[in-house]
Amino acid sequence: MLPRWLFVPAAIGAAFVLLPVLAIAARVNWADFGELVTSEASQDALWLSLRTSALSTVLCLLFGTPMAVVLARTSFPGQGLLRSLVLLPLVLPPVVGGIALLYTFGRRGLLGEQLEVLGVQVAFSTAAVVMAQTFVAMPFLVVSLEGALRTAGRRYEIVAATLGAGPTTVFRRVTLPLVLPGLISGGVLAFARSLGEFGATITFAGSLQGVTRTLPLEIYKQRETDVDAAVALSLLLVVVAVLVIGLARQGRITEQ
Amino acid sequence: MTLEVEATVADRDVEVALEVADGETLAVLGPNGAGKSTVLAVIAGLLHPDRGQVRLDGRVLTGDGAFVPPHDRRVALLAQDPLLFPHLSVRENVAFGPRSRGAGRRTSHEAAHRWLTEVGAEELADRKPGQVSGGQGQRVALARALAAEPRLLLLDEPMSALDVAVLPALRQTLKRVLAGRTVVLVTHDVLDALLLADRVVVMEGGRIVEAGPTPDVLERPRSPFAARIAGLNLVSGAWHDGAVEGIRGIATEPAPADGDTVVAVFRPSAVSVFREAPGGSPRNNMPVTVTDVEPRGDQVRVRAGHLAADITVQAAAELDLAPGTHVVFAVKASEVAVYRS
User: Fold this and answer.
1) Under CATH, what is the fold of the domain B234-340?
2) Angle separating helix axes B105-118 and B90-100, nearest 10 degrees
3) Does B337 touch chain A if contact means CB atoms closer than 8 Å?
4) Could you read off the pLDDT of B49-78 as tens digits, one per residue?
5) Cβ B71–A162 below 8 Å, yes or no?
6) Which of A146, B30, B159, B313 is the most exposed, having the fewest neighbouring CB atoms within 10 Å of its CB?
């Protein structure tokens, strides 16, 4: 039995999250909604957001999965410190992340000259959008997956090894399938975080329509000139986010 | 010797040396915390001993600067918990070992079918591990370990987490599949040792305190732990007309047939001692000659050859027992358990 009073703060908390979402829906200019969300600028922004977020999610999976495994399954001096640093983007203001990226990969950044020699210019390109999103989203995947790995434990991996499976086989046939739900929810979180990314993107990638102006940036720009468009696009972003979460939940239920 | 182990694990205060011959089953008995599982972990390559060596068929697995990783040892481990991979079907679980060593899908599925049949679980092949019972799960885990074709099989209390109702049948299965294999069986159940092992070592406080052929250790335990769990009367012979060597008892399933070799087991405390055979009762009467009378607190252990009886001090005094006295040991048939051996 739960103490009854617990429901009161729980309801207040839920209302605090849900009311603003309803407020957006209430404020939408439904008459022009279709036109507002299908304008060329909106379409460009939505399409760019989906593309870059999908790509950064893939990058998070490719690099974040091994990182989570190393953090969960090994121990070495300074591991705790490394874990804290890797999770830094979780607590860093995204704008600071953007500045950090700029002074790493920008023209006058740490690696900027080397990149320029190779003929690569990262800052203010679509690649920069993907990098900014990956930077802020990676910790979500790592945290979620590391937790799943620790919960799953090593017992199945040990049994697999005594059955003659080498480390790669164990990773592929035992470790990954066992943490698949954690991998999915981590991926969804990373995608959602990428979709909402604003500060690091505008600092490191700028706001160029069709190239770096993602949906949140488009909303921010329209907010000053065309409030109706900003509200309509906000609702669109909410719908996309809800769809992503819903699909992921569906996937996990089927998995179980 | 097939397996030679010498290991010191300082932080668990374990220091052991043991050997297992080809095709032999060695039981490691001992109380909780005696270091039995530590020894298995060292053999399986899951734990680096501080000092020592593990050799299998002359190949150094651990020691001399060498360390063969667990997956290259051909040493399979079956624990208390079956630990079937929850995302794979029973068939895929059993096929896991062959697949890992490079066998194709078809070959490994055939191997899975063969081993599942061997342990009597072939009808479970399409189920997920969540859909089988504890006893079935342990059968599947046994099939999975055997399908990996290990040179050495390690069993770590494989039956201690199971319902007692499924134990006799699983013991028979183990007995059948372990025959001729090189096995180290960790157990605290004296019956497992009796039925499955050729030799026994008893561990206490991280040391081996007793070792020898199973019947010797169980009949004449010298260490306190072995004495507590064992000290059993064992009478083996051919099963004939519901009795072995004239002793009737309760046979566990599957019941032995006439002529099967069986062993009758009963505790010294279940034995009564008389000067003359008591008549008219459904007891097993064994005329014996007392060889030894040894006081144990408020009890007296009366030995007669390989049999023992625990009686009270008063009863011993009234019977006026001394070595050479002819007496009758009597035990109720309901106190005698009979197992096929």
Assistant:
1) OB fold (Dihydrolipoamide Acetyltransferase, E2P) (2.40.50)
2) 120
3) no
4) 999 999 999 999 998 888 999 999 999 999
5) yes
6) B313
